[in-house]
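Input.
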Amino acid sequence: MQLVSYIITHTQLPGTSVKNTVELLNDGSTIPFISRYRKERTGNLDEVQIGDIVKYKEQFETLEKRKITILKALEDQDVLSAELRQKIEATQDITTLEDIYLPFKKSRKTKAETARKNGLEPLAKIIMSQNASDVDSIAHKYIKGDISSAEDALEGARHIISEWINERTDVRNNIRQQLERFAIISTKVVKSKKDDEAAQKFRDYFEWEESLSRIPSHRLLAILRAEKEGFIKAKITIDDEKALFKIEDRIIKSRNACASQIQLAIQDAYKRLLFPSLSNEALQNAKEKADASAITVFAKNLKQLLLGSPLGEKRVLAIDPGFRTGCKIVCLDAQGNLKHNETIYPHPPKSDAIGAMKKISSLAEAYQIEAIAIGNGTASRETEALIRKVHFKNDIQVFVVSEAGASIYSASKIAREEFPNYDVTVRGSVSIGRRLQDPLAELVKIDAKSIGVGQYQHDVDQTKLQSELDTVVESCVNAVGVNINTASTSLLSYVSGIGPKLAENIVNYRTEHGVFKSRNAIKKVPRLGDKAFEQGAAFLRIKESKNPLDDSAVHPESYTIVEKMAKDLGKPISELIGNSTVLQKLNLPDYCSDSVGLPTLQDIIKELEKPGLDIREQAKVFTFNQNIKSITDLQEGQLLPGIVNNITNFGAFVDVGIKESGLIHVSNLSDSFVSDVNAHVSLHQQVIVKVLEVDVPRKRIQLKLHK
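Output.
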């Protein structure tokens, strides 16, 4: 099977594993389901390896689709020989395929096509044979119609030769190699835009030069954005003389008059056809690599953010802080339902701090609040300071929560449907509170690109970015599991095998018939068939079900195995849950069958020992340095507590409690070489940093990670 061979070549994974995984994917299985519940079929492949199989499967299918299109086009032109068909069908990459097709993909408006219409192809062939010594006199024979001189004839012939040279795969590949190894990307500022305020963030690239093969992804994306916005001009260069010499060396085999004509044709082909096309291709390839790098960074950040520490089912008072417009307060129950909302005005211009403190105190008591969530935007520090002055009757934890994306959610269709009778400010406060209770459940409602943890995410290939982010969200949601009786449509739509339409059906069914009492009851949801149940049931949790396995990651298809284990041990299933001592008595090979092997059985035991265990850490209280209110309060050498709020390839950004985030450059993360920023810090990690440099005019802060 060509597809399987293609994937094996690119992944080096075992053939049987690839073949079986492809079969499962073709059968409609999802990556989370395959990696968790089909380990025997895949040879225990993990999500990343299965993701690679999906990637190369799609790549192969795109290649095959393009081959079919090209073969049909060649058949229509009546130029498809058996040899050409074989060459196309054997091709394993898209670049080679397009090179093969290039000679047949002509626009009627090319200079070469015009020359052909003027009958100059025979002259071009004579010149390319390199046998004629007097090409001028031969060229005179072609003077007719639009060709008024021998020079016109020679020029037309050269245009045809230029096209032939441009279509030669060996010539194209040689220039590709030179671009790959030696290309330089350089930039120049557009003088009329040099002093624009918006151009200043690109000031480093007003005059820049660097090897295209070695330029870091963030720098290339910044340069391309600056060019797109009209502040700089970028160009790619190589040693043109060397490139021309290599082409001449391949093509010119004589020293006669033909050679000088071919030399002119080579120069024309290089300047007009080869270099513009192939330098653009090289830049596009570099951009694709930069995109892939930026998407990887974004995906890692998003995963860490989605798997951020949940506070859990606690009653929360959430505050969206503000000065002039006041602080919007909401009270949420343990399930995140809105119970109360109002606005207080503790800060200027109204400055009713005492009234605000009384109100917060009374609301905390009335709604038995267990934690307070404060958005980290405008007036956040001042609001946090106010809250810490309030004397609560019970011990209440105070958290500062990232607002990134909350405004996007509050104005979204999802928020409007959830809270049709409330304005965006109330919805924003609810989002802040729920984000503390369960970051994953709340963040899936927001377009991942708006969460603010990327690196040039709006400049990369949006289709690839969306695909990667959807995969990350799906992976996180299924790794944690979802309470089907409380989950939103957004959260349910990412469950393996469910999707948006079935998620909607589940919520509608729940609203009409009440909570699901068992996993089997899920089958009653309209249009949720056997396949969707197989793919999704184990990721959906039912709290307080008669069968304790319904609140675990044990798949319903394995319930009979657990029942047999319980019977063999002479205990009810409920007494196996969390009972490691009893479970260790089992001899797992006794339970192996043709479809169930040790990997699945070991997973079952692990799950029975700690059923429904949340893989996420619990939320921890954090306090910024209360003396630091703005960038002017910072001094070199200070040690400050901070929270990592973005990770890039060149370092990590840290929130130290002021408007501007500081940068720990990759060189300041460790005293030794750092190849992966994520190996040293993680998103939302609480860290201590040392202030190295403060540039107030440019609002830049350089930090060092303090061990």
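The chain has a mean pLDDT of 93.
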